[in-house]
UniProtKB/TrEMBL annotation:
The keyword tRNA-binding does not apply. It comes from the Bacteria. InterPro entries: Class_I_gatase-like, Divisome_Glycosyl_Hydrolase, GH, GHL6. This is Family 10 glycosylhydrolase. Pfam families: GHL6. It comes from Rhizobium sullae (Rhizobium hedysari).
Amino acid sequence: MLDAKRQNTDTLRTPDWFTTATRWTQLTFVEDDPEKYDPAFWIDVFRRTKSNAVCLSAGGYVAYYPSEVPYHYVSKYLGDKDIFGALVEAARKLDMHVMARVDPHAIHEDAAKAHPEWVMVNADGTPRRHWAYPDVWVTNAYGAYNTVFMPEVVKEIVRKYDIDAVFANRWQGHGIDYSEDSARRFKDMFGHALPKKPDAEDPAWQAWVQWRRRVLTDMIVQWDEAVKAIRPHASFIPNMGGASLMEFDLSVIAKHCPFLVVDHQGRKGLELGWSAGRNGKRIRATFQDRPVVLITSIGPEEEYRWKDAVTSGEEMQLWINDGTAHGLYAWFTKFNGVVPDKRWVEPVADAFALQAAVEPVLESMKPVAEVAVIDPSTTLRHWAPEERHAAEKHDLGVYHALVEARLPFELLSDQVLSEQNLDRFKLIILANAACLSDAQCGAVRAYVDRGGSVIAAYETSLRDEFGRRRDEFGLSDLFGAKFVSGPRGIVKNTYVALAGDHPLNAGFGGAERIMGGTRLIDVQPAGDAKTPFLYVPDFPDLPMEEVYPRKAPEGAAVIARETGKGGRSVYFPWNVGEIFWEVFAVDHARLLANAVRWALGKTPRVTVAGPGVVDLALRENADGIALSLFNLTNPMMMKGPIRENYPLGGQTVSVEIPEGKSVAKAWLVVADRAASFSIKDGRAEVEVPGIERLEVVHITWN
């Protein structure tokens, strides 16, 4: 195998250069860096972190090179220097890939006066000052600033410097622009006046979402073509999160974005560590084989924006290496070239070293799973980005339940429900895919006809792709459920009662009922469908003397059925994923895990037994499999920053051996030694003595 330096040399300045850009350093300059920062320190950081790629601030809001584009503001501290160009040259001498960062979201006073059409306009008709620095102006992302001015900046950078890509930050705009130009172009295309606020029920808002999508998609094409006209191997790389993929024409992204960068830089509030890996899954949900790079900040990611601070080393390593476990390339970002607090360097170097250690095994394999959670883009795009988190609770709850249950799984976007994509999985889960088109429902139905299994909940398929309410579930026949009424709620003090003997209600320790949901739909089971749980009719939660049920359980609260095609289906007519995300009740975790294991209809391909919370990711090639086990167990698991790492004790990994294969070797990649294993009932049982942070079990077949 070629060493890392040789691999980079072989792919320098080639169309597939990004395949060896796996460990990124990003330095975001501040305006006085030309006078104050130490370039030698940063060149040493490149070496210490084993970075093979770098992203450097070049221009946009501030230029860090001597730009000749009119109104392109050059740092007043630059003098006769070119700090961008100097670091580009230094990185190339280390055989690193180089990407130039531009930020087009704000401009200075002189440009705003000369070109008022470049400035975003508020709803009251006033030009928009920057919310954090009122001395400058917010740009109109949908007009000439991004289609005339910024392309000239991009072309100048690409002509002058030996780079592989241009990376744009904050390029997508900041809400609705109410300029005359935007209003006219929008009305010409859709016939509406600009909407006054985000509102999923407002046709003007939905039209504006589509208009913005077209404008920004066209911008991706324009900038990328401008880059390639000068350097054919290079690309324009827009900064975006996994959720952003629903906002663009997927065919354009497929053509113009050879890899994708996720700008979700760390945990915020009560966010869980697995969110890092979820970022990669969300990209793969749409683009299965596209490389994904995850940006990690060395500072805390909170609303108060301490951008030049340093979070704990363990917190950085958590984020970087949970991404590693799920196949994301590592990228850390530092704001300000001056470094008054160097505590981040060693933890980042350690995290990058761990990434480098597992790359040789993971890079030749593809993610696989028996289970997929459907990423409901068609539903989520009806929500304004700032409100979308409320709609995602259903999916987040199911996600965490699967992590707790130690079930490897992937995401699959409802935008790409092809036969090929669906048939990679034995089971798909629709946590609350409320909005589905007839074609999407047909794709799911055909998948079930081919033997696939389905779990669905709440309003799944009750609306069409435009958000219009159907009279019946689009997937009623698969659910074995006929819609009666609802949803209603929020309802408090609700319960569901165990009914009969079924695998879905196993393991509840003799309980007769468990907590129910807060948003309920009344359904009638159809045919031979089973109802392992029934609703307990509502009763008061106060006064305390009145807190008792008046009626016996009635009405289906869970419907389970054999599809007759070789698969199984489970339907929850209540918000099981959402309420689990809000409350984390152990009974709901068990119920969801029971549903998955029953719907699979077999022992999962991979099981892991042992203490703690472990995030699993399975990869495979013709020669074997690699199972990543990332340790999430920590008393600060749901509130960062994590103070220290808590190693896990022994784990037993059981893997189904493919027909016609036998185990050649079991290897612990991080520990760098052979693992003991045994063979029992067609499965290999591998002993993992413990997990410090990450371990990868690599099993090769004869």
